[in-house]
Amino acid sequence: MQRRRFLQASAGLIGGGLLLPAQLRAGSAETMKLVASRGEHRFMAEQSNPTSVMFYNQSLPGPVLRIPQGRETVIEFANSLDQPTSVHWHGLRIDNAMDGVPGMTQAPVAPGESFRYRLNPPDAGTYWYHTHMQSWEQLALGLAGILIVEEKNPPMVDRDLVFAIDDWRLDHSGRLDTASLGSMHDWSHAGRVGNFITVNGKLDPAFDVAAGERVRLRLINIANARVMRLLINQPNASVIAIDGQPVEPYALERGELLLAPGQRTDLVIDMTAAPEQVSPIEIVIREHAYQVAHFKLAAKPKREQLLETPIALEPNPVNRIKLPSDFKQVPVLMQGGAMSRMPGAIYRGREMGMRELVQNRKMWAINGIAGLPAEPLFSVERGTAISLEVDNDNRWLHVMHVHGHHFISDLEPGIWRDSVLFQPRQRGNMRFVADNPGKWLLHCHMVEHMAGGMSTWFEVT
Ligand code: C2O
Ligand code: CU
After folding, report:
1. How many CB atoms lie within 10 A of CB 41?
2. Which of 295, 383, 408, 422 is the least crowded, having the fewest Cβ atoms under 10 Å away?
């Protein structure tokens, strides 16, 4: 494998610089305030012409919100954009009315209006928040931030680092390529994949650490569509949580990690590297490894010996859910996209051929229906065990996300996820107890696929 720096040509221009995203912690006197607005951002430090973005609290990504587990936090959201929006709290098993899906759980928040989100998350862990309106545009322009639900008894670490990875499509001037927003080619292929990768909004930021330190690294893929293969390049890295939920800690194999859009992985790393050395974190794209961030080792080690105390998170309530042995089986047939054999689908209650579908910007279907159907995929009483029997019958990767619930899949046994990656033509199940009343989405988290029709919903009564 060859190693290169990302954007080699411009790399000389960019100073790394320590970057700590803005943090807001609940429990301080005021309630948290979150404001969506348009603004300007420079992707490269010495860029003369900034690009127009959408962000929360004028920060890209939005602030890291730290809220307590099992207690209510109020977030006052205000929309200062010129278009309606909403905030979805990705992965939280909260009240349906707070889920932030416009037209389903709330009215869109109009420009100049506000909405009060009350979050009472049962599970601790690493989550994120993002727009759930016109995501193919609003998310591509930056409307996402990080949400941490703090454990009552957090594990002892020397540092707790957030690592939000995003993927942007920039033009030759280094500004966001907005001309290609909504490109039908993107929608029918792999989604809007970019050419510029940032961590916490920066190109190749430095994270200051010291040898012997125990670091918690919260990795979050906030990109529209890019599936990321990351190389951590540290020998003592263990996975402690996936999609927010604690797992039995296990060592990262070959230091490699796959993160699809919306997914999170929490690592604990016992740092090993010589003083003042740089330890890169890389992304592999077509056999090349590009540095996307790096650890910068201090001159003095923190400890001579690595900590040997094992580390594990306390289980969340979700970890204790016992799945029964019979399930209500629900087929989920995913079809469409470029080079598909899908003849057509139902859209807005009417059968359409591919040509007419595409005129309506639809090219994906679940069970033969493009976009949100009038009737739910299923409607069940609270407490019913569901097994989504997914058949990804097309040539594309998809990351299927369920709102308001975590599930187990035979693709990754024993792991509670909220978003799972399906390979082309892969089949697999997603099993959970539908225990959260309300109307919930099930969709592909490659947001162009969602916009192109790959979304449905279910109801828990
Ligand atoms: Cu992260 Cu329906 O969303
Ligand atoms: Cu998809």
Report:
1. 20
2. 383
- Rounded to whole angstroms, how far apart are CA atoms 369 and 335? 10
Instruction: Report pLDDT for 48.
Output: 75
Nearest to 337 by CA among 201, 207, 444: 444
* Residue in 300, 245, 249 with CA at minimum distance from that of residue 420: 245
SS3 120: coil
Which amino acid is it at 55? Answer: F
- 91 CA closest ligand 1 atom index: 1
Contacts of 29 (CB under 8 A, 6+ apart): none
The answer to whether residue 294 scores a pLDDT higher than 60 is yes
Query: If residue 34 lies in a helix (H) or strand (E), which one and from where to where?
Result: strand 32-41
Q: Which ligand is nearest to the Cα of residue 420, counting in written order? A: 2
CA distance 393 to 73: 41
Q: Does the N-terminal peptide bond of residue 261 adopt cis geometry, omega within 30 degrees of 0?
A: no
Amino acid, res. 309: T
End-to-end CA, the chain: 52
Alpha helices for 218-371 (secondary structure H):
354-359
CA of 210 to the centre of ligand 2 (A): 40
Q: Which amino acid is at 198?
A: T
Distances (CA, A) of 196 to 50, 136, 290, 440: 15, 17, 11, 33
Structure tokens at 398: 């998809």
- Residues in contact with ligand 1 by the CB-under-6-Å rule are 88, 90, 130, 132, 262, 401, 403, 441, 443, 445
Alpha-carbon distance of 86 to 101, in angstroms, equals 7
Q: Helices (DSSP H) in 98-232: which residue ranges?
A: 135-138, 184-188
Distance from the alpha carbon of residue 138 to the mean position of ligand 2, in angstroms: 18
Q: Kindly report, residue by residue over 385-417, the tens digit of the pLDDT.
A: 999 999 999 999 999 999 999 999 999 999 999
Cβ pair 121, 317 in contact under 8 A: no
pLDDT in tens, 304-329: 999 988 899 999 999 999 999 999 99
- Amino acid present at 188: S
Q: Are the C-beta atoms of residues 383 and 446 closer than 8 Å to each other?
A: no
Distance of CA 11 to the CA centre of its chain: 27
DSSP states of 273-304: --TT-EEEEEEEETTEEEEEEEEEE-SS-S-S
Model pLDDT for residues 174-223, shown as the tens digit of each residue: 889 999 999 999 999 999 999 999 999 999 999 999 999 999 999 999 99
Q: Distance, CA 236 to ligand 1 centroid (Å)? A: 32
pTM of the complete model: 0.94
Report the sign of the C-alpha dihedral through residues 168, 174, 178, 180, in that order.
Answer: negative
Could you give the CA distance from residue 452 to residue 212 in angstroms, rounded to a whole number?
A: 48
Cα separation, 237 vs 64, whole angstroms: 23
